[in-house]
Amino acid sequence: MDCNCFKREGKNCIEIVPIFSNLNYEEMMEVARITKEKVFEKGEMIYMAGHRGENLYVIHSGKVKITRFTSSGKEQVIRVLGPGEFMGELSLFSHLPLRDNGEALLKTTVCMIDGYRLKDLMKKYPAIALKVMEELSQRLEKVEKLVENISLQGVEKRLAESLINMANEKGEIALKMSKRDLASHLGMSQETLSRKLTAFQDTGIIKLIGHRRILLLDIEALENIE
């Protein structure tokens, strides 16, 4: 269906995306005219590696897991995205097939922006292209940091840094992904992750609350883990 979210209460998927933040209402309407909306159920694939990317996907509501599979078939979680974030952006700059997969972790509403026509708008509004490049730069930095950590750091150090980075100002974590996916993202098995989290709790560094909440009790101790 065409994107009619401008008619709804609250912000639409175009307004909440930083790459369009410098556009005025009329300019956003130009983006809306090349946008279609689609709802994906939990577990449904939004796109898969090998597909020809023709859209920029913007998450209006829900949550999406971006993954790749190794040659041995092992899933590697790259990132988890939520409302206002986008994916499939490499298709805007390359004719190669997509290399990752986008899977809905919840019932998710996605605004799909026609990539070819968006490139025309980028020429008209260069700020959009600059914002996309800024986001790509930040994502590349995060991926390089992750690769460095997996290559050079032990599992405890990797986990400790990840916990610190995920925590809010109160030292609380509400996991955006399952522990299985978190383990994949950190380059360890789910069993290793569970064992290390339990060990951290036993030593009083953290407190596990249910399946998705973690409270950091001693951040300094986490920072000193080698």
TrEMBL record:
InterPro entries: cNMP-bd_dom, cNMP-bd_dom_sf, Env_Response_Regulators, HTH_CRP, RmlC-like_jellyroll, WH-like_DNA-bd_sf, WH_DNA-bd_sf
One Gene Ontology MF term: DNA binding
Pfam families: cNMP_binding, HTH_Crp_2
Protein name: Crp/Fnr family transcriptional regulator
HTH crp-type domain boundaries: 153-220
Residues annotated as signal peptide: none
Keywords for this protein: DNA-binding, Transcription, Transcription regulation
Domain spans labelled Cyclic nucleotide-binding: 19-139
PROSITE patterns per UniProt: CNMP_BINDING_3, HTH_CRP_2
Alphabetized CDD domains for the sequence: CAP_ED
PANTHER family in alphabetical order: CRP FAMILY TRANSCRIPTIONAL REGULATORY PROTEIN (PTHR24567), LISTERIOLYSIN REGULATORY PROTEIN (PTHR24567:SF28)
One GO location term (cellular component): cytosol
